[in-house]
Structure formats: C-alpha cells, structure tokens
Design a protein that fits this description.
Helix content is 47%, strand content 19%. It is built from 15 helices and 16 strands. With 489 residues, it is an alpha+beta fold. It is elongated. The relative contact order is 0.06. It starts with 7 loop residues before the first helix and ends with a helix. InterPro entries: cNMP-bd_dom, cNMP-bd_dom_sf, cNMP-bd_ion_channel, LSM_dom_sf, MS_channel_C, MscS_beta-dom_sf, MscS_channel_2nd, MscS_channel_C_sf. Keywords: Cell membrane, Membrane, Transmembrane, Transmembrane helix. This is Mechanosensitive ion channel family protein. It is a multi-pass membrane protein.
Length: 489
Amino acid sequence: MPTLTDGVLFGLGILVLDFLAWRFLDGRNDQLRLALRALMLGLSTYVLFSYGMNPLRAAPWPDEGLRHLLAQVLEVVWWLQGARLVTIMLDRAVLPEAWHKERLFQDVLGALVFLAASVGAIAFVLQLPVRGLLATSGALAVVLGLAIQSTLNDVFSGIVLNATQPFRLGDWVTIGDVEGKVVESNWRATSLLNGQGNLVVIPNSVAARTNIVNANQPSHTHGLSVMLPVNPSIRPALVLAALANAANSSERVLRDPKPAVSVRRATNDAIEYEIVCYVDSLDQKINVRNDLFDLAHRHLLSRGVVLRPLSVPEPPLGGADEKHRLLRNVTIFQTLDDDEISALEERLTRHEFDVDETIYTAADETGHELHILARGIAKVILPKDGAEIELRRLAPGDSIGQSGILAGVKTAVIARALTRATVFRLDKTALTPVLARRPEVAREMCRLLSEHHATEEMLLASPSNVDESSGGLLQWIRDGVRRFHELTL
C-alpha cells in the first residue's frame, strides 16, 4: 500500500491540484495558466525522481500491484504534462503571430507532440516493443485513412488554406456562392456569418476548390457593382454617358481606380449596363450602391430616359415636359400640385455651362435665384486659405441658392460645373407667392439649408450669437424668410 513516505500520494496530490487549476482558473489569463503548468510539471518531476519513479524507466515495485500501477500512471501522466507544456511553448516560439488564433495549426502541432509523448511513454514506462506497435498502427492508419478519406481531405485542405491565408478571422469574404464574415477556421471547416446573421459552415475541401473573394484585401479599396437594365430602344451612348455621370456624382466613390461603365449584354427586352467603382471603406458599400441607383435614375431622367417596361413608349425629350419633370423631382416642390408646377415652369430660365464654368456664387446677381441642375454634374466648393474645399456634388434635381432666395444671406460657397451642365434658374419673385401659399415649401428649404450648414459654413456672414443647434438655426433662417419676403410662416 502507498504511504506518505514513498511519493505516490504526493504525485497524486499534484495531479489533483493540476486538475483543479485547469478546471477553475480563468482561461483568459494565459500567462498565469502557463506559469502554473510549468510549476506543476516541475513539482511532478521533483517528486518522481526523488522517490525513484524515473519516467525514462519502467515503474518500480513490480511485486506490489496497486503501488506499481499508480507509479505507472504518474510516469505516463508526466509525459503528457510535458507534451502539454511543450505544445504551448512551440506554439508561441515557432508558429507565426497570425497563426496563434487559428485552431488548425495548434491542433496539428499538439497532435504531433502528444503522439511523440505517447510513444515515449509506451516505450520507456510500459516497456512495450515500439517497432511492432508502429507496424500495427501503420496498418490501422491505412484502414482509418480509407474510412475517413473525406475528413482527411478537409484537414489537408485546411492546412493549405491556413498556410496560404487567402483570408483571416474577421475578413468579409465570398466563398463560392456564400458571402459573410469569417468567424472560425478549424481543421474541419470554415465558418462564415452571413448578412442575415446565420452561421454558414463550409468544409475546407469545398473552400479550397472554389473561388475565394476577400473584400478586405486590399484594405484601402473595395469594389462594388451596380447592374441596370434599360430599354433597348435607347441609344447606348446616351445611357453610358448618364451612368458615367452618376458614378462621378457620388463624392464617396474613389477617383482612383476610376469608375467604369460598360454594356454587359443585350437581349430583345433590355440592354444590361454595369457600373463598377470603388470605395475606401467596406461599411460604405451598401449605402454607396443605393446612392448609385438613385443617381443613375436621376441622370437618366435628365436625358429623357425613363426606366419603364419596353411596351411603354418613351416620353419626348425637352420642352415643357423637361421642365415639368425637373420640378417634380426637386425635393422642395414635392407637395405642389400640377397648376403650381406649371406656373413655376413659365418662370424658369435655361442656362448652359461648360466644364469649370461658375454656375452660382453669392457675390454676383445670381445670389437671389434658385439654381436647379437639370443635366450634368456640378461641385460645391468653399474657398479657404488660398485653396478650394469640395463640400458636395450636385446631380440632376439638386438645387443651390436657398440661402439667398430664402433670407438674402450671402455665403462663401461657389457652384462650378464638372461636366457640361444645364441649369434652370428661378427668381425670388417667382417663389414668393408659392412660399406665401405653401409654408411647407419654405420649411423644406430651411431644413435643407440647415443640413448643408455643417459642411458649407453658410453662416460665415451671420450674427456671431446665432445658436447653431438644429432648432436655433432653423428659427434664425425662418426669421430671415419673414423679413426678406414679408411672409408669416
């Protein structure tokens, strides 16, 4: 029977402490766990060698069954404790930093170390013939390999994927037809969290045989594509020009790489066009894609192209229909009826601008006119410190000049044509009756003016004590409208 003086009970006590520490110690404190494992191995080594239980030899006391068995258990466990500590040390010293979060390489490395420790324990502690064991295990490995062929295919495919690193944890990727965020990559499969919040598990063998698209690489450019079918009766050159302007109208689209517009295919029902452009943040892709559809609609509409079924004829281009369509797509005039729109149509004046020509500036006589962009692209800039800061871009249906026409406020902003542009102007005198009858139009103009204040610095000439919060700014603008138009809002 083991006694307190032969070391067996000491060894068993160390194993119990090791188990309790592994079970209850906080798993997030890796340094403490590593130090504790090294301490437990050191104590086990001291106890075993001090009491004649050398792990490199057969267990002592062969004539005492229970005592001999416990000594064998302690020596075998010593080999496994050493394997566990060596695995952790090799993981930190050999594996690259990027692989520390990948379970596959940790599992493979740990399996190899524990396999070597098991062979050592069998050879030294149990004194079994390793050569025969290896021969038997080789035959068994062949049988198991045939039985788990698909699983082995996943394992080796996982090794290739983790070695080449087409993606990392946290990347947004497309593997075949599945798109999502990589949340785990282990020896068996890769797990993606898709846009619907579902976990999709893809076997590594499947991922290795299909196309992998990593949206996080390169980190500074992220491509997006917008497909748009258009009536085949519309001349493609006109549509391509409108869609190119749509891509260039978005300030969030990168200029390098340059956006590209192309015809993908043509059928009897439609010609399919594609806009390919890039953004600098993965989070912007959905918003920019939605904006591009809106901008494409506006630029096509400005050229008389209405997205409609093939059986419906296209409306005529130009004339009163163009003015009516333009005013209907201006946000501030959404609540007006057809008679009021028609009255404003008669007061519109048409103006053409070449590239880089100034469309609007508060310094000249156009400061008290509402400028509505009908075709092309314009940019709103703010001169500052000898340079020009681009604040936003104007697409068909956008307007500028609300500050002057509402309250007579002079701002420092300038609107300049980026392409050949068509602009319709509406004088203050034409809008005053509308503002008197429709206070909601003035309120909408005030709201837009308030939104632009943050980027345009439109109150550079306003009193310094104006409250720039949303309510204070809107109230100040409404007061200016009352004074400028002698209205009661």
